[in-house]
Design goal:
- Chain A: Pfam families: BPD_transp_1.
- Chain A: Belongs to the binding-protein-dependent transport system permease family.
- Chain A: Keywords: Membrane, Transmembrane, Transmembrane helix, Transport.
- The complex is a heterodimer.
- Chain A has two domains: 41 residues; 213 residues, Orthogonal Bundle (MetI-like fold), CATH 1.10.3720.10.
- Chain A contains twelve helices and no strands.
- The radius of gyration of chain A is 24 Å and the shape is globular.
- Chain B contains nine helices and 22 strands.
- In chain B, the strands form five sheets. Chain B has a six-stranded mixed β-sheet with strand order 6-7-8-3-9-10, with helices on both faces.
- In chain B, strand 18 and strand 19 form a beta hairpin.
- In chain B, helix 2 runs parallel beside helix 4 and helix 3 packs across helix 4.
- The longest helix of chain B has 18 residues.
- The radius of gyration of chain B is 25 Å and the shape is elongated.
- The chains are: A mainly alpha, B alpha+beta.
- At the A-B interface, helix 7 and helix 8 of A face strand 6 and helix 2 of B.
- The complex binds adenosine-5'-diphosphate (ADP) and magnesium ion.
- The site of magnesium ion (MG) has 4 residues of chain B, from helix 1.
Chain lengths: 277, 389
């Protein structure tokens, strides 16, 4: 193609892309700006105006009210993400490499789990948690997230592992390696891209979860999403938009950070089937 | 160093499926090289996996040094396998790939280093030890895969189509190298291929398989000279054996087969082949005459049946020229030296050695043994040796 100055179609493409960017970025910008404004500034100024004075007061107040819940979320999310990823990897390994009688059916049922709406599992899950004595505990919420996430993590790993030649496992068996050695020494080191996909996916799902958090936790075990909702919805006193915005930013930052750190693996893992070499 | 014996081995993958292996009976001596050859999908890999213990057999027994190993797990069988896809561990470098099996067997680190060095030297891959499989060419990966098998010094090597992913030139080189390696190490080996040249050149014994059934098991010479049926005869040999339909006739207490080249020269366009003494039921029977391309010779010789035919196509291949004529309305290939090769349309005289001709039943495809013919051993010794290309 000749290297021409912007053709009409190019202009159209860039314009569309810029518009799409704006749709996503302008609200973020407004949030960020508002979080650094003083309440007076917010009341008098316009939404998009630059803060008259940058102040961290909103952030400090926000952290005071949701900081504890932030750590709740950390305590829920990290174990739930790690456990569901590890179990998903093991499940996927078995389903792809050690097929047993009925394993296809098992996989089919598991897939079904991906399509279960959250609402459907609420009652059975709360009953089960009650029976286990885990109601309103962090461990209970971790358990629910692990169980619900397993369908997805298993699917990720199973689909990744079926693209790896079975001969690799056969060779390792002949070399004398057992079930867990093959998993740990041969397959896991090959799984970095899909582990990243799984971690990001699960982290985003669990950190952002509101419904399970509101149903299965209460008081000081609640995750930050619930705390944010409570903060924003309080009807007493004047609305402190700077605090709301800062709290929302605090709630959203970890997922953003995870995506920035591991995002390149996410794309690579979703597109690459088999890794060669 | 071990003998291997398969007794009545059966394999069925699922209860609803047909048998993939049916009553496989094979045995090879210590240090022998067995070739398993057959078209793709006939069950060669399945049989290898069964011997290695990667798949359970559903009947029969597998014996190594006269001990039944069919219940053992793969790691206890002391068998190493080279896979068609090489199956190198992608995240380990070449050294770790070779050492993995030794580590799993708890060998001392110093001994592992020595063993890796020995194997690397043997296969000339010393300079590759630090590389990952992804940084190697196909031929180098192939060597590493062999190195991994060699390192454990197992009782038996299994090779499942190890050369089929290599280009033609490398394949020929590696074939020779594998043969040299086997002559040096003398380890009992089972080698799967669908390449009939590999089958003829590498093996002490050849088993030809089709649809999970061993069609014939013997030395390469037996397979080539006395194929048990039409399938074996057509599968082994390149260009393949000619199959000419015939009706058997009786004269003077003998069986004769009539060939007709339909060339408009009276008399010489027909030829009667004496095919042995008459047996009951042979008369008027439809059979198939099998003649290898190099067994059809140019020019008439007293006492040997000959026929005049017209050249339809010639294919110069370099070392020989293939000449195609029609006999009994069937295209027949004759292999000739390029100097003697005729032109298209030329008419020439071809002669046959009736002793070397084979007869097959037209229905069952089984080879017919005829009375009064030279014995198999005699015939084998007079046949022109196979020329692989
Ligand atoms: N794991 C399996 N489950 C079911 N059928 C199989 C399995 N592996 C191989 N087969 C079937 O067994 C037959 C022989 O396959 P294979 O041993 O791979 O043939 P080859 O190596 O001679 O090409 C094929 O028909 C194949 O479909
Ligand atoms: Mg195969």
């Amino acid at each position: 193609m000749p290297k021409r100055a912007l053709s009409l179609s190019r202009v159209a493409i860039y314009a569309t892309l810029l518009a799409a960017c704006a749709v996503y970025l302008i609200p973020l910008l407004i949030m960020l700006l508002t979080s650094f404004k003083t309440p007076d500034d917010i009341r008098t100024g316009n939404l998009l105006s630059w803060p008259e004075l940058f102040t961290a007061i909103g952030w400090i107040k926000a952290w005071d009210s949701v900081g504890g819940y932030f750590w709740n979320s950390v305590k829920i999310t990290i174990p739930a993400v790690l456990i569901s990823t590890l179990l998903g990897a093991l499940n996927g390994y078995v389903l792809a490499m050690w097929r047993f009688r009925g394993s296809q059916l098992f996989f089919g049922l598991l897939l079904f789990g991906c399509f279960l709406p959250f609402q459907v599992v609420l009652l059975p899950a709360s009953f089960t948690l009650g029976q286990l004595g885990l109601a309103n505990t962090t461990s209970g919420l971790v358990l629910v997230h692990v169980v619900y996430g397993l369908a997805f993590t298993t699917l990720f790993f199973r689909n990744y592992y079926v693209s790896i030649p079975e001969a690799l496992v056969s060779a390792a068996r002949l070399d004398g390696a057992g079930f867990f050695t093959i998993f740990g020494r041969i397959l896991l080191p090959m799984s970095v891209p899909i582990i990243m996909v799984c971690l990001i996916w699960q982290f985003t799902q669990i950190w952002n979860d509101f419904l399970f958090g509101v149903v299965f936790a209460s008081g000081d075990t609640q995750p930050i999403t619930v705390a944010l909702n409570n903060l924003v919805n309080t009807s007493t006193g004047a609305k402190e938009y700077n605090v709301d915005m800062a709290a929302a930013m605090i709630a959203g930052l970890p997922t953003l950070l995870v995506y920035i750190l591991a995002g390149k693996y996410f794309l690579r893992g979703l597109t690459a089937g088999a890794v060669k070499g | 160093m071990a003998t291997l014996e398969l007794r009545n081995v059966n394999k069925r993958y699922g209860s609803g499926l047909a048998d993939t292996l049916k009553d496989i009976e094979l045995s090879i001596d210590d240090g022998e090289f067995l070739i398993l050859v057959g078209p793709s999908g006939c069950g060669k890999s399945t049989l290898m996996n069964c011997i290695a213990g990667l798949e359970d057999i559903t009947g029969g027994a597998i014996l190594v040094d006269d001990a039944d190993i069919s219940g053992m797990s793969p790691k206890d069988r002391d068998i190493a396998m080279v896979f068609q896809s090489y199956a190198l561990y992608p995240t380990m470098n070449v050294r770790d790939n070779i050492a993995f099996g030794l580590k799993m067997r708890k060998m001392a680190p110093a001994a592992i280093d020595d063993e890796v060095a020995r194997v690397a030297k043997l296969l000339q891959i010393e300079h590759l030890l630090g590389r990952k499989p992804g940084q190697l060419s196909g031929g180098q990966q192939q060597r590493v895969a062999m190195g991994r098998a060699l390192a454990r010094r197992p009782k038996i090597y299994l090779f499942d189509e190890p050369l089929s992913n290599l280009d033609a030139k490398l394949r020929v080189e590696m074939r020779t190298e594998i043969k040299l390696m086997h002559q040096r190490l003398k380890t009992t080996t089972v080698y799967v291929t669908h390449d009939q040249i590999e089958a003829m050149t590498l093996g002490d014994k050849v088993a030809v398989m089709k649809d999970g059934v061993i069609q014939q098991f013997g030395t390469p010479q037996q397979i080539y000279n006395e194929p048990a049926n039409l399938f074996v005869a057509s599968f082994i040999g390149s260009p393949p054996m000619n199959f000419i339909p015939l009706r058997l006739q009786r004269r003077d207490g003998q069986v004769w087969g009539l060939l007709d080249s339909a060339v408009g020269v009276a008399g010489s366009a027909h030829c009667e082949l004496p095919l042995g003494a008459l047996e009951a039921g042979m008369e008027n029977r439809e059979v198939i005459l099998g003649v290898r391309p190099e067994q059809i010779l140019l020019g008439a010789v007293e006492g040997q049946p000959s026929i005049r035919a017209e050249v339809e196509v010639t294919e110069p291949t370099g070392p020989d020229t293939l000449v195609f004529v029609s006999l009994n309305q069937t295209k027949v290939c004759c292999r000739m030296t390029p100097d003697a090769a005729p032109q298209i349309g030329e008419s020439l005289v071809l002669r046959f050695d009736p002793d070397k001709a084979l007869l097959f039943d037209a229905q069952s495809g089984e080879r017919l043994g005829l009375l009064g013919k030279t014995s198999a051993a005699e015939r084998a010794s007079t046949v022109t040796p196979f020329r692989g290309r």
